[in-house]
Amino acid sequence: MTARKDWDTYFMDMAYMASTRSQCNRRHVGAVLVQGKKLLGTAYNGAPMGVPDCSEAGCMLVEEYELVRGEEGEKVVKKQRCIRTIHAEQNLLLFTDREDREGSVVYVTDQPCWTCANMLANSGIKEIVFHRPYLKDSEKVTTLMERKGIGFRRLESYEPPAGTLTEVHH
């Protein structure tokens, strides 16, 4: 008899299963909303409903520059992102109710970007659990969650279910 999965593994597995619906060429991301032990919603990243996605129409990449202040002074960091795709966390917020989000936990395959972190910070959730780090925004997202009192943790030793992990292109 195999060991029963713990709740973190169980819900992160569901987030990875949701990510398999993504058609994004760069990153498949899934997210689930959980209240207690009850699954309230799932989402993945992709183009708006009824609009050709990146696999059909190509990525809509834009370059952005961010001024980063650190101990060594200021430096400009160049970022490239696709603006066709709605992120999994954004879709999760669009398709769940505020009442359901109050005090809930979001499990997401990837650490939220800055924009998603801001949205989640105002969504009523109490915790974000993620697997893969997103280093571009990690420090400022972590600081935001600390300031908001939102739990923020990575499942480092987690192993996604077979067939759900996709190659990540930056």
Mean pLDDT comes to 90
Number of strands: 7
The order of strands across the largest sheet is 2-1-5-6-7
Strand content: 25-35%
Report the span from N to C terminus.
40 Å
Coarse shape? globular
Tell me the helix content: 25-40%
Keywords: Hydrolase, Metal-binding, Zinc
Family: Belongs to the cytidine and deoxycytidylate deaminase family.
Organism: Paenibacillus gyeongsangnamensis
InterPro entries: APOBEC/CMP_deaminase_Zn-bd, CMP_dCMP_dom, Cytidine_deaminase-like, dCMP_deaminase, dCMP_deaminase-rel, Deoxycytidylate_deaminase_dom
Give the key terms.
170 residues; alpha/beta; five-stranded mixed beta sheet; two-stranded antiparallel ribbon; 6 helices; 7 strands; globular
What's the gist of this structure?
The chain has 170 residues and is of the alpha/beta class. The protein is 28% helix and 29% strand.
Structure, explained:
Its cofactor is Zn(2+). This protein is of the alpha/beta class and 170 residues long. It is built from six helices and seven strands. Helix 5 runs parallel beside helix 6. The longest helix is centred in the N-terminal third of the chain and has 13 residues. The radius of gyration is 16 Å and the shape is globular. It starts with 6 loop residues before the first helix and ends in a 16-residue tail after the last strand.
Secondary structure: elements and pairs:
Blueprint: H1 7-19, E1 30-35, E2 38-44, H2 54-57, E3 61-70, E4 73-82, H3 88-94, H4 98-101, E5 105-110, H5 114-121, E6 127-132, H6 138-148, E7 151-154
Helix pairs in contact: 5-6
